[in-house]
Amino acid sequence: xxxxxxxxxxxxxxxxxxxxxxxxxxxxxxxxxxxxxxxxxxxxxxxxxxxxxxxxxxxxxxxxxxxxxxxxxxxxxxxxxxxxxxxxxxxxxxxxxxxxxxxxxxxxxxxxxxxxxxxxxxxxxxxxxxxxxxxxxxxxxxxxxxxxxxxxxxxxxxxxxxxxxxxxxxxxxxxxxxxxxxxxxxxxxxxxxxxxxxxxxxxxxxxxxxxxxxxxxxxxxxxxxxxxxxxxxxxxxxxxxxxxxxxxxxxxxxxxxxxxxxxxxxxxxxxxxxxxxxxxxxxxxxxxxxxxxxxxxxxxxxxxxxxxxxxxxxxxxxxxxxxxxxxxxxxxxxxxxxxxxxxxxxxxxxxxxxxxxxxxxxxxxxxxxxxxxxxxxxxxxxxxxxxxxxxxxxxxxxxxxxxxxx
Length: 406
Description:
Layout: H1 2-14, E1 17-21, H2 36-39, H3 66-76, E2 100-102, H4 105-116, H5 122-127, E3 131-134, E4 138-139, E5 151-157, E6 162-167, E7 172-181, E8 184-186, E9 201-206, E10 216-218, E11 223-230, E12 233-235, E13 243-245, E14 249-251, E15 254-260, E16 263-266, E17 268-271, E18 274-276, E19 286-288, E20 291-294, E21 299-300, E22 303-306, E23 310-311, E24 313-315, E25 318-321, E26 326-327, E27 330-333, E28 337-338, E29 341-342, E30 346-348, E31 352-353, E32 356-358, E33 364-367, E34 370-371, E35 375-377, E36 382-383, E37 386-394, E38 397-398, E39 402-403
Parallel strand pairs: 2-3, 3-7, 4-7, 7-11, 8-12, 10-14, 11-15, 12-16, 13-17, 14-18, 15-19, 16-20, 17-21, 18-22, 19-24, 20-25, 21-26, 22-27, 23-28, 24-29, 25-30, 26-31, 28-33, 29-34, 30-35, 31-36, 32-37, 33-37, 34-38, 35-39
Antiparallel strand pairs: 1-37, 5-6, 5-9
């Protein structure tokens, strides 16, 4: 009888029609979430401090070393509104044909120093339409990493007026086929109140402070491409409004030809590559094969949430959530998903899916996708392709075991 039910379910998934995806298939009763072992016998949701991640070789942040402090002091004391970069920051001029070259950990730190501080509108003046190219594998494991960008600051100038600066890299970062390893973040230990204070300005942080965590805290504008983040440990902040955690970017970014095997832990909007709303265009060719743990809602192998059509992604990592909306590709999709697949195991409570956990109340297209991973939920709405929501499925199939309760 069980074999007949499985065939019927696969046949239904292959039919291209709009229908409400409520429950993929049942192969067992109530599933005990394996993450309960981490939380103790009661099964309580842990805090991020309960996850014992490795620490860097030198238990310091990169901006606490004498060498980097010298750079910070120099940069922070530039005249207000300066449009000039300090000389000899990177080789190159930042154009498509002569990009800024990132050839060492120090070069990458410089990008963080300039993006995270200063008195000018960083993303508009320094990084708009600029190009960066990595020239070798880079190891960051010596220090705690401070994400590049990811928050706003309100700056009070010497004139008494105030202005809001957005700290994001808006240019193109080309990994050039190389990797960055040893990215250790621990936002529970850092408040971001160390922002670099210029001689003529007083800073007050607001907006995304301590919320967007990854190699880049936030990335807008052009793309991040041809980059791998490996052997890295990304931990977000553990408080009610702590959002947006991913290995490459916590908040947004156009991602192409990127991959990661990082361990990523956060509360809301936690993704293997990007926490919140990446752009994954046709032939994005992005993949994740690490471990993602979400303490709150919206956890996915590629992204916590997508709101534009996602193409050509796959996940083989382990995706685990203590709450609702866990998916092999994304925890929440408000746009279509095409040519994506999942082979990793996905665990959650309600709304658990091999491709997407939740698609909302208007039909979303899911085309040419499949799942072979084990999909388990301790609550309702568990499916091989989609957990909950309206979907237009075509040319999709599930071969993975699906467990949940009705």
